[in-house]
Amino acid sequence: MKLNDLRDNEGARKKPMSVGRGIGSGKGKTCGRGVKGQKARTGVSIRGFEGGQMPLHRRLPKRGFKTMFPMDYAELNVGRLQQAIEAGRLDAKKPITEAMLLETGVVTKSKDGVRLLGKGEIKVKVALTVAGASASAIAAIEKAGGKVTLTANVETTEAA
Is the residue at 60 inside a domain? Predict the structure, then answer.
């Protein structure tokens, strides 16, 4: 095979329609655009335009609030933490930090920190330092005799 032999596959490139070349072509005179008006001209973009009526997106009320810089936490469930301790990847006797979780591969990406969630159960006493934690996660750790220290200024709610 040579560079000068390279070709597109058959039918890969479609020829553009020839417009404005007489009535016999089927796309002559107005080139398939109908007659006159704004849409017959070039450069028309009227998405959302409703013929002078107030557009739907302006008729509906604005609602809610979206944080401009939301925090994106790496989520870690209590059950996964227990699995890592049982597998010997984490030592429950030492304080566990976000850096240790990242190092051992329990959490893959730190993002804006680690947020502990309450799915699963933990049987070992651990001292954790994480950016955030849900109320159920903190309750589960404290029930096992452990302690959770939060580094970020996060509310301890169930929603992540």
Answer: no
Which pair of tokens denotes residue 95?
Answer: 């304080």
CATH code, domain with 107: 3.100.10.10
In this structure, the chain runs to a length of: 160
For the full predicted model, state whether its pTM sits above 0.70.
Answer: no
Q: How many domains does the chain have?
A: 1
29 found inside a domain: no
Domain that holds residue 135: 74-150
Residue 133 lies in a domain: yes
Question: Would you put residue 31 in left (φ > 0), alpha (ψ -120 to 50) or beta?
Answer: left
Whether 145 is in a domain gets the answer yes
Tell me 40's DSSP state.
Answer: G
The overall longest dimension of the chain from CA atoms, in Å, is 87
Per-residue pLDDT of the chain (160 residues; tens, 9 = 90+): 899 999 999 999 999 999 999 999 999 999 999 989 888 998 888 888 888 899 999 999 999 998 899 889 999 999 999 999 988 888 888 899 999 889 888 898 878 889 999 999 898 899 999 999 999 999 999 999 999 999 876 554 455 4
